[in-house]
Amino acid sequence: MNKPNSILVKIVLGVFLFLGGSLSFGQAIFKGTIVDIETDEAIPYATVFLANTTIGASTDEKGKFSLYMPEGNYEVIIRMLGYEGITFNLPASMVQPQGYKFMLVAVDEELEQLDVKESRDPAWYRNLDDFKRYFLGTSLNSRSTVILNEMSMILDDQSEPGKLIASSRDILKLETTNLGYRLDYLLNDFRYDYRGGLVTYSGFPLFIPDTTLSKRKQRRVERNRLEAYYGSMQHFIRSLYYGKTVAEGYEIRRFYRKEDPEHAGKFIDSVATEPITSLAIMKNRDRREFLEFSDYILVTYQNESESPLYVQGMGRGTRKSQTSIMSLTVDSVEIFENGSLSDPFGIVVEGYIGWERVGDLLPIDYYPETEPKRGLQ
């Protein structure tokens, strides 16, 4: 999986220019101007948003925009019809107060289009079902999530035998009814390996809250958001950042995995007897927090039971806690107060948190107003 280009790489490539100034820290105002690279003319109505948040804006008639950027690490997305988009990583602590100038490159708009009313063959619909299962997920929230423009999808199970590769001609429009959001999801990559059962996907969603809900429906949505948040990756990373994993209901243990010498392709797993605290896997460097460990860790969230949908096909009943296995693909990953990571591909997750997919996502600027409660369903 390719990691997002760094801000320095973007500068070298001349995609955008920095207007000058010194570094800021913590929360910031991210502002700038978007122009045509050939004419230097302003581009009005371009979209700028912080991926995985509810924070976005459009440029005005002079091509200017301004966004409030809370402390954390973000993928910034810039899009305009008829131009190549820009995607880059930017921590709030690195935002320059004087702003930026982004230069977009025009593209040929004579792109091949497929009539959305054109019929698809049965294989396309089977692939669509698989895509929904492994991208949206199979949880209760996922089952209530709808792709509004699914006919824009390209579903390919022929280019690489045994794999389903998905892309979209347009930004995917999703509705997560249970959680009260509409998502504009820029799908970067999706692959499902039928043989190995491995799913990889990446993308950049903008969350748009549904402001038309009645008070009764809004209360139900808030309850659903609480349930989705507690025990999620976002909640776990925030708990690590504040050193409150135990108080928030998490138990962490060392987890060991080695190849089974008698059965090729299988493994022997073992778990350490004693739990560890967040101090054992966290490093503080210059007031910055890093997650750092070798092998694996077993993370158990003790304040919620498993969903019955999770254990379907496992041949067992639900357990009173949710367990996940995590490993690092890099030596260490910086974590931020809002639950974001310096490298979104730096952690591989199996188990319960890995089962929760796009249908259970919340924006990283979501913060619950109540404390976690044992048995919240």
TrEMBL record:
Domain of life (superkingdom): Bacteria
GO molecular function, one term: carboxypeptidase activity
A Pfam family recorded for this sequence: CarbopepD_reg_2
Entries under InterPro entries matching the protein: CarboxyPept-like_regulatory
Record keywords: Carboxypeptidase, Hydrolase, Protease
Protein's UniProt name: Carboxypeptidase-like protein
Organism from which the protein derives: Algoriphagus chordae
